[in-house]
Amino acid sequence: MQLTGLADCCVPDTSAIDDRKRKGPSPNIGLQQRIPLKQLVYTPKCVTLTLIVLGIICITVGIICVLIEATVTAYPASGPYTYFDWEKYGKNAGGQMRCPCAENDYCEGQALGKVAPCLVQFNITEDMPGPIYFYYALTNFYQNNQRVVKSSSAIMSRGEDLLKQATSGDGFSSCQPAESYMVNTSDFEQTEIYYYPCGLAAKSLFNDTFTLKVRGTGDIIAWTSKGIAYASSGGVNGRNQAMDVQWHRDNCYKLGGQDFDQSGYHEDLRKFSLVGNSKGRFDCWHNVSEEGYQVWTRPAARPSFWKLHKRLPGGLKQGQYDLEIGLNYPVANFTGTKAFYFTNATPMGGSRAFLSSIYLAVGAVLFVCALAFGMLMVARPGPLEKPEVTYAPVSIMERKNKKFGSLA
């Protein structure tokens, strides 16, 4: 019985493999590392021209920055106006904390008990087109301290199942030491009430109040806190998601803190703030979706910082103004200062001379270097043509033979 045909069909076809072996290595010069080598050879003329072109570009950008910055108007023009300095104005002869009774400032009866607001009078010498940004500034306050940054609750900020977390054994321990306090309930048992929001980052919220008026008429100038925070700070997908009104009615033992007007809550909850829910587990002292709170809870990198507080979309006209400031925020513990600043902005930001100065300085340095190269070319002239640089071609097999010796 002949099985030749069956044997032939079971033998693998090695012709394709033999063809690949006969072809040898890939002819791709990239895979074979045979790409022609090019080495840049710098000539004095090329370097000098390059430095001159770069210098022109930098100085042009610097001049544009200076012209754009000139369109920014601010008060005060020299920088933030310090309205409270603990070292200078912290105490009067009677030992009471007072605001600075400096030139154009009036603080009759202003003490720690908020008898009267600190009144700062100032003049705007030219129209300030809108939008105008109103900043407050603090010094010597280390908001990026590790203890402050860690003392917060991501669960509470995102508005997850807070009641479930509160009834768990862990609670909001990450907010220590500003997590909760104990109260006596009607049945003579103690209940733990959690701050909402909790943590040192939240509880250290800046709470000085500002009211801008036209001097003489007393008309209050409307401004807004809408649009002062990053879009990523709030909303459904943001870092701070507030619970709805009904949740507050069901779960807030207290609401609104010491001053409901500063709490950021809706007017629908004003009457509820006076009653609260005796069975609630949260002291809802501030609305986490309020943009001023969101701005504050982004820690500053330096101990002296500005934070955006209000916006005036329509700008300010030339004239005289009064700024009433309620001194609520204590700075004695860190011996700091408090200040304010009005400014508008450009697409490149506010009035910052640093950017234009850097461009102009770099452009000047480039021109000096170009001048030095030009003088060197005149003093020690050389060939202006590029020298030819050649390399002996080395094949892969030659390199193997040199390393391992001839295979012959």
Key descriptive features of the protein:
408 residues, alpha+beta, 5-stranded antiparallel sheet, 4-stranded antiparallel sheet, flat
Description:
The chain is α+β, with helices and mostly antiparallel strands and 408 residues long. The protein is built from 13 helices and 13 strands. It has helices at residues 4-10, 15-23, 44-69, 86-89, 146-150, 154-158, 162-167, 200-203, 245-251, 270-273, 291-296, 353-379, 396-404, and strands at residues 74-75, 81-85, 105-106, 118-124, 132-138, 180-184, 190-196, 209-214, 252-255, 282-284, 305-312, 319-326, 337-343. Strands 1, 2, 5, 11 and 13 form a five-stranded antiparallel beta sheet that branches. The protein has a four-stranded antiparallel beta sheet with strand order 3-4-12-8, with no helix packed on it. The protein has a four-stranded mixed beta sheet with strand order 6-7-10-9. Strand 6 and strand 7 (190-196) form a beta hairpin. The relative contact order is 0.20. Residues 92-98 and 101-115 have low confidence and may be disordered.
